[in-house]
Design a protein that fits this description.
Elements (H helix, E strand, L loop, with lengths): L2 E3 L2 E3 L2 H11 L4 E8 L5 E8 L9 E7 L5 H22 L11 H18 L4 H9 L1 H8 L4 H16 L5 H21 L6 H10 L13 H14 L1
Antiparallel strand pairs: 1-2, 3-4, 4-5
Length: about 230
């Protein structure tokens, strides 16, 4: 389903992709990534709706940097590739709904704006103070070994929020930290055939027993988990 962001509906890249393959049975999507000197990467996606007519193509581009967020540190190439595919699909008429940007793109841009606003405002000390208060919990999370253990920790934090041991904001911060580490480690282990890692990442996407706390950054975490799962 489209995601409502500030009163406007945005479709996800996965939704656009599903529609593309449903309608275009004889199609092709190809991607390529160019690495820039500053560490950023530019992804290009080209879609051919009908291979019998290869001259009719649609193209999308995206640029991402590893320093854009904690998730980008391990996944900025995958994020750029997904964004490029999403934009290509929008140009082809899938899920544009008045906007070429996908739900994932808009969520990331809002997070960037928020970080920029925080740096420029005089009360920037406030979020730092919260993080310092939670530093012992962060340290305990950092000490956890294995993807499954980190997802377990996120699940327990969600339970603590329900009984008011943590506020929702504190819980969201700790859950993001645990799941960002889990996704990063699972991505680093990609190709090693770890069924346990796959099952752990699948738990992040479960709707029966949510591990992610809804709010700022939650859509980005889910999108990163989906990309990570596809690479395992």
């Amino acid at each position: 389903m489209p995601v409502n962001i500030r009163g406007k509906q945005y479709s996800t890249v996965a939704e656009r992709m599903t529609e593309w393959h449903r309608i275009h049975k004889n199609s092709k999507i190809a991607t390529e990534v160019e690495h820039l000197a500053d560490g950023a990467c530019v992804a290009r996606a080209v879609g051919i709706p009908d291979l019998n007519h290869p001259d009719r193509t649609f193209t999308g581009h995206a640029c991402e940097r590893p320093e854009d967020s904690a998730v980008h540190k391990h996944n900025h190439i995958e994020i750029a590739e997904t964004s490029a595919v999403g934009r290509m699909l929008a140009f082809a008429g899938f899920g544009a709904d008045g906007s070429i940007a996908s739900a994932e793109e808009v969520t990331r841009e809002m997070a960037r704006e928020q970080r920029s606003d925080d740096v420029e405002t005089s009360d920037y000390v406030a979020p730092v103070a919260v993080s310092e208060q939670l530093k012992p919990a962060h340290d305990r999370i950092d000490a956890i070994e294995g993807v499954a253990g980190l997802v377990d920790a996120a699940e327990k934090i969600c339970a603590c929020v329900k009984v008011d041991r943590y506020t929702r904001a504190e819980g969201a911060e700790l859950v993001r930290h645990a799941l960002q580490l889990a996704i990063g480690r699972a991505h680093d282990n990609a190709g090693e055939g770890s069924d346990a890692d796959r099952q752990s990442i699948e738990r992040i996407l479960s709707t029966e027993k949510p591990v992610v706390i809804d709010g700022e950054g939650s859509a980005e975490l889910v999108a990163a988990a989906q990309r990570c799962l596809a690479s395992l």
